[in-house]
Design goal:
alpha+beta, three-stranded antiparallel β-sheet
């Protein structure tokens, strides 16, 4: 399979300025006892949240949920302040480290469909109590296969010829992705444009497959 390369691609890459993301900033406390929504006057404390912090990129709300199985579990409700609304995994890990601690263990849940709550662009971390048993086999399996899996997956993607032009994590808008798709089509590439079920601009994904 022969891949087409724009004759000026290398030169453009040398001259391209790095894209600067929105700064992280310091975490600032917000009063959970003060109404922030003028529509109903309810406070975050009324809803059950005990703490709220914000920086330049994210808002994080804290809520302790009593459970019969694990004991009290700390719930971190994370929302992005950026247009993309996406919170990358690395940022979720950083949020957990900075606000709860590097040694804390949190999980994310993909629930059964009948238990799904998906009414907002929010991410949820559930911080387990320190003494919660955790199967060491999970981490061991990942560490033992990592070096072997990564080149295999990359080779599989390369074999299929897929190349991501724009994705939600890159925070591209509709216009930027459409321009990238148009340029790719002019180079003779096959392009697919997708959006999520809600038709949100930030969810548009463009991929290019070389014929």
């Amino acid at each position: 399979m022969t891949r087409r390369r724009h004759p000026k691609a290398g030169q453009q890459g040398k001259n391209r300025k790095p894209k600067l993301g929105k700064p992280w900033g310091e975490w600032e406390e917000r009063d959970v006892n003060v109404p922030h929504d003028d529509r109903n006057g309810r406070t975050l404390a009324d809803i059950g949240f005990t703490r709220a912090v914000i920086n330049f990129r994210y808002v994080v709300l804290f809520q302790t949920v009593p459970t019969g199985l694990w004991g009290p579990v700390l719930h971190l409700h994370i929302r992005s302040t950026t247009a993309s609304k996406v919170v990358p995994w690395a940022h979720r890990q950083r949020i957990k480290n900075e606000l709860v601690g590097q040694n804390a263990r949190s999980i994310e849940i993909n629930p059964p469909t009948q238990e799904l709550v998906d009414s907002a662009d929010a991410y949820h971390l559930w911080v387990l109590p320190t003494a919660t048993p955790w199967p060491p086999e999970l981490g061991r399996a990942l560490r033992e296969t990592w070096d072997e899996v990564q080149p295999t997956v990359k080779a599989l993607i390369a074999k299929e010829g897929w190349r991501v032009l724009g994705s939600p994590s890159m925070a591209y808008g509709r216009e930027a992705i459409e321009k990238m798709a148009e340029r790719a089509q002019e180079r003779g590439e096959i392009v697919e444009v997708k959006e999520d079920a809600n038709g949100k601009l930030e969810a548009w994904v463009t991929q290019s497959r070389y014929p």
